[in-house]
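Morning. Coffee machine broken again, so started the prediction first thing and wrote up yesterday's gels while waiting. Chain of 161 residues, entered below exactly as on the submission form.
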Amino acid sequence: GGAPNAPCTGIWLSFAPLARPTEVEFEFTMNGKVDMPNACVVFTQKEFNGALPECKVGVQFTVRGGMQLCGGNSQLVRISNDGKIQNDKWNKVLLKIDWNDKVVVGQVDTRGKGYAPAIQTVPFRDNACEGFGYLYIYNTDVQATCWFTSLRIKQEQGDAR
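Came back before lunch.
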């Protein structure tokens, strides 16, 4: 979620032991300003205590104009060619995670016609991430609100560390 006029609103979840999912899928919509990081979905190894880089971020999804993943060196990489997010339109995102190479392949469905082919492979934001201990879903701008209708986290048996 998010609440209008409330900065950086969100929810979080912890995993113990560390999770090593191979797929994450979610569906969301948003309304308002889409030029700032919003509808953020972030998986970290360590708990957030004031500085995101200290959390060992593995996967970081954000909407900033369009849908993007934050890769190594904090570079934003587009995972959709559909341009800016449309207000009140539902979007599905599928993130396939390769733990051997520590990369994420993102696919999006913005039209309800199935996932478009992947256009990028994105390295983990922090290559030292060994698993996910925390999930954060949040907005960073008071002029946007997002809603999530589903979240699926798939982990193959035996992948937990």
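The CA atoms of residues 72 and 125 lie 4 Å apart. Going to sketch it on the whiteboard this afternoon.
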